[in-house]
Design goal:
Length: 304
Amino acid sequence: MATRETDSSLVGHFNVLEDPRDPLRRRHNLIDMVIIAIAATIGGADGWAAIGQFGHSKEAWFRQFLELPNGIPAHDTFGRVFALLTPEAFETCFRGWVASIRTFLPGEIIAVDGKTLRRSHNRAKGLAALHLVSAWATASRVVLGQVATDAKSNEITAIPPLLALLMLRGAIVTIDAMGCQTKIAEQIVDQGGDYVLALKGNQGVLAAEVEEAFIEANAKDYAGVESEALETVERGHGRVETRRYRTLGELSGVPRSALWKGMNMIGMVESTRESAGKISRETRFFIGTIGTGVGDFARVVRAH
């Protein structure tokens, strides 16, 4: 597959993609179409018609590094060719390319979260709305990977294969309470990462132990224990939000901490919001492997 000099990383990663078309009927190079589609999508194109329009509007630029033996493909050609590609093979190439160009920052936060796509259901065919579990690099602002499920309740099974696709060494993974599972925590540590996991009812006993540990430490004014605190105040749009972050490294009062690989801290966030004369309060608890540095803890919680 011939191209002139271009981004060797992009071409190198997608040159291995198998072209499913009849060799005698190919009018456009597959790598040309891939590069145009990726560039167009990054530029905001949200469909084949928009990708085709983008290609035509930037044809002079593309000709600087693509062969384009028969010009820019029509939008329906893009749609037809991409429909023939194996999604898993394209995804593998794309992940490899993104990983090669992403600048990885030590301590980068990877937020794993699920979201149901509205209007993605099909009642006629009995299909529920599509639920995506995504991994988002908060500093690089890049979606590192996604796994689709057919229900929010399946997030637990979707998270491990999603994490397996990622490079976690040096990263901090944060997951909502749904993903607070010992096996998931173990996988993160085994892949070289740290974790901060939210606690809720799905870990009722552990959550109760963590809350009690903070109550006991607070009764002693945190004397003689490894702990840090931080308070932030934000004002805007007629409301004031105060957050009090507290970490605790004394886990003797948390027997179930022994079940969590690498766990060395628990965290608490007390949030108070004042708006229109009304005051609301919320307290959340977390477990993690990041130590008691409260600045890091606050950064992780806010990033998620």
